[in-house]
Design a protein that fits this description.
six-stranded mixed beta sheet, DNA-binding, about 40% helix, homodimer, alpha/beta, 12 helices, about 375 residues, about 15% strand
Chain lengths: ~375, ~375
DNA sequence: CGGAAGAGTGATATCGATATCAAGACCTGA
DNA sequence: TCAGGTCTTGATATCGATATCACTCTTCCG
C-alpha cells in the first residue's frame, strides 16, 4: 500500500492462459532459448529451427507478454504525456500529434491530466515512473517547482517540456514563440488606436491569482508569462498603467467569462481583449455578447492560440497561431533523441508563431 | 519480431538501479516475504516488523515496479481507450471523463487513435491485449466486423463499446440516443417549413462512401446510422426522395466542406443542413459562408453533437446535446463492473439526448 | 589428420513482485 | 506440563521474456 492506491487487482479474475513462448518452443520442438532467439532476432538459429519457430508462433497466434518483457528490460515502449486538459484544443491537438509520432516510432502514449494542479502533476509523474515509461512529455504546471521532473531525469527517464519552461530544470524543451506572437497581436491592436486593452488569462493553478496579491509574472507558467510580458511591454510604450486591465483568473472557460464581465462593467471598459488561449476566448466571447457588445465594433478580440473553430465565429477570430502539430512531433523527437544519447546537452526547440488577423480585430477603434 | 514492430529497446540505456523490495527488506532486517506482506497488506506481520518495513520503504523512497507486478498478476491497472481522434470535441471530452473516472478508480488510461480505420483499430486492440490491459473502451470503426473485439473478450478482457454498436458482438455498451435527438432536430426543421434538408456525415472509414455505390445504412457506424435513419424517416414523411440531399463524405472537416459546397452548388440547394457532428459542422459552416450564404436566413444548420464553441458562433449553433461526461463515466463504470463480475449479462446504457435550439435554426424558411 | 574457428543449441540465471507453504515461536486451556 | 491452536516468519516457486554461457557438432585450413 505504499502508493496509496486501492488495489483494483482484487476485482480482476484470472485470465484464461494465453500462448507463451514456452508453448511455441514445445510445438516447434526446440528449447525456449532457441525460440526466443528465433523470434527476437539475436544470437543464432538455423534456418530450419527459425522456420519451425515462426510457423509455430503463427499457428498458435503467439503474442509477447509486454509486461514480462518490460520487467526484464527495465523499461517500456510507453511515453507519458502530462497536460492540463486533454479536452482543450491546444493540448488535444498536441497530444494527437505526439501520439502519431509515437506510433511511427513504435511507441505508445499514456495521457494524464493535471488541470494545472501541481499536486496532480506530481502524482502523474510518479505513476509514470512506476510504470517505467521510456520518457515523458510534460506541460509543467509550475514554473518554479520541477523537483519531481528532476527526479525523473535522475532515474534516467527523458523529460521533455512542452509549451512550458521550468526554472532550474535542465531539460529538453519545445515551445512556440508566444512572446513574439503576442507582440504582433498587440502591435496590430495598438496600431488601430486601442489603448484600453484587456488581457484575460488563467493564472497557474485552478485557483487563479489571489486578488490583491502582488503580481509576479515569473511565477506564472512560462508560456502564459511570455505572453503577459509581451502584452505589458507593448502597453508600457503607450499607456502609464499597463497592468490596469490585466485579469488573471482560475483555469477554465467560466472563470474567463466572469473576469471579462468584470472588465466590461468598468466605466472605462477596454476596447479590446487579448485572450491568452482559446478556452479563455470562449469565455471572453460569450461575456462580450452577454454584455451586449459587438465584436469588433465595441470590443476587438484576439486569442493566443488557434482553435479549430476560429473561422466559424462571426466575425472570425484573430489568433496567434502556433504550429501545434510540429510542436508535438518535435517533443516526441526529443524524447527518442535523448533515449539514443542520454548525455547530449539539452536543446530548446522554439517554433515560430504568426499573427493571423481576421475580422475580430477588423476595424480601428470607434469605427 | 513477431509483432512487426522495430525494437526501440536498443535505444534505451540501462537505468540506474532503483529501489527494490529486496533492498527495503534488507534495511528493515526482514525477509523479502515479510516486507512484501507488510507493504501489500496480506498475510500477517507483527506490528514491529510492519513498522520497520514501512519506515525503510519511506526512507529509501521505495516505489513498486509496476511491470513486475503486472507480470506476476497477469493484468494491469490500465484501461485502453480506442477512439477515432482524441483531438475532436466529442472524443476529447469523453476521453477526459473516462480518464477522470479511471483515476478515481485507481486506474490509468492508454489512448489510441484510429481515424475510423478498421486496420488501425485492430492494431490498437492487439497492442492493448499485449499490454495486458484490465479492459478497454472502444468506439468501434466498423459496425460489422468485431472479431478483434470478440478476441479480447475471449481473453477475458472487458470490452465496452462507446457511442457505437457492433453487430454480433455481445458487449456492454454506452451511447446516447442519437436517433431520438436527430428526430427532434428534424421535427424542428420540418416544422419551420424546410423540405430540402441536407445531411452531411462522414461515412465509416477515411475514404467515405464510394460514389454511386448503393447506400447500406446498416454498414455505417451505429451512431451515424441511427442519426441517418432518423433523418431519412423524418424526411420520408414529407418528401418523395429522402436520400436526395444525403452527402456521405470521408472523415474530417475538409471533406465535409467539399461535400457541403457540392450540395449548395445545386440549383435546388438545400435550405437546411444537418451536420452529423461538430467536426463536420466546422466544414459545413465554412462552406456556407464561403458560398456567400447566411445562417439561418439562407441555410439553417444543426449539429449532431455539442462542441464547446456552439455558443460563440454567430448565430449560435443549434445542436443535439449528448451527456458526454456521463457517457465516459458510464463506460468506465461498465469496465469495472465487468471486472468484478465477468459473467453477468451485458447491459446497454442509453443516455438521453436533447435538441438545443439556438439561432442557427432560428427562423422559418424564407423569413 | 589435428586443431582452431564458428555455428547451433539447451540449460540456466535474471528482472522484481506476489503468494503459498511449512516450520518455528508463542500462548492458551486442560 | 503438554496438546492444540494462532501468530509470525523465511524459504521458495511463480509469472513470461531475455540473454548469457558452455557444450556439441561442423567445417575448414595447415
Amino acid at each position: 500500500m505504499v502508493d496509496g492506491v486501492d488495489r483494483v487487482d482484487d476485482l480482476v479474475d484470472r485470465r484464461p492462459p494465453s500462448v507463451t513462448l514456452t508453448e511455441v518452443a514445445q510445438r516447434a520442438g526446440v528449447s525456449r532459448a532457441t525460440a526466443a532467439r528465433a523470434l527476437g532476432g539475436y544470437g543464432s538459429a538455423s534456418a530450419a529451427a527459425r522456420d519451425r519457430v515462426l510457423a509455430a508462433a503463427a499457428a498458435l497466434g503467439y503474442r509477447p507478454n509486454l509486461p514480462a518483457r518490460n520487467t526484464r528490460n527495465g523499461t517500456t515502449t510507453t511515453v507519458g504525456v502530462v497536460v492540463a486538459d486533454i479536452a482543450s484544443p491546444f493540448f488535444g491537438q498536441s497530444t494527437r500529434s505526439i501520439s502519431d509520432a509515437a506510433k511511427a516510432a513504435g511507441l505508445e502514449i499514456m495521457v494524464l491530466n493535471t488541470d494545472e494542479e501541481l499536486e496532480a502533476e506530481r502524482a502523474a509523474v510518479h505513476l509514470l515512473l512506476d510504470q517505467r515509461v521510456a520518457g515523458m512529455v510534460v506541460a509543467a504546471a509550475s514554473r518554479t517547482d520541477g523537483r519531481h521532473l528532476a527526479q525523473a531525469q535522475a532515474e534516467g527517464v527523458p523529460v521533455v517540456l512542452l509549451d512550458r519552461r521550468v526554472i532550474g530544470l535542465d531539460a529538453d524543451r519545445v515551445y512556440a514563440d508566444n512572446g513574439a506572437g503576442a507582440a504582433l497581436a498587440m502591435a496590430e491592436l495598438i496600431g488601430q488606436g486601442h489603448r484600453r486593452i484587456g488581457y484575460v488569462s488563467s493564472a497557474a493553478g485552478p485557483h487563479g491569482h489571489p486578488p490583491g496579491a502582488p503580481l509576479v509574472v515569473d511565477e506564472l507558467v512560462s508560456s502564459g508569462g511570455d505572453r503577459i510580458r509581451a502584452y505589458l511591454a507593448a502597453l508600457a510604450e503607450v499607456v502609464d498603467e499597463p497592468t490596469r486591465y490585466l485579469a488573471l483568473c482560475p483555469f477554465g472557460e467560466e472563470a474567463a467569462y466572469a473576469a471579462t464581465r468584470e472588465l466590461l462593467a468598468r466605466p472605462d471598459r477596454p476596447t479590446a481583449v487579448f485572450a491568452s488561449d482559446s478556452v479563455i476566448a470562449l469565455g471572453v466571447l460569450r461575456a462580450i455578447a452577454d454584455a451586449g457588445f459587438a465584436v469588433p465594433g465595441d470590443v476587438a478580440v484576439v486569442a493566443g492560440d488557434e482553435p479549430a473553430w476560429s473561422r466559424v465565429t462571426t466575425p472570425p477570430l484573430s489568433t496567434v497561431t502556433q504550429p501545434v502539430a510540429a510542436l508535438g512531433r518535435a517533443a516526441l523527437e526529443l524524447v527518442t533523441r535523448r533515449l539514443a544519447d542520454p548525455t547530449s546537452p539539452c536543446t530548446d526547440v522554439v517554433l515560430p508563431t504568426t499573427f493571423q488577423a481576421r475580422a475580430s480585430t477588423g476595424g480601428s477603434v470607434g469605427a
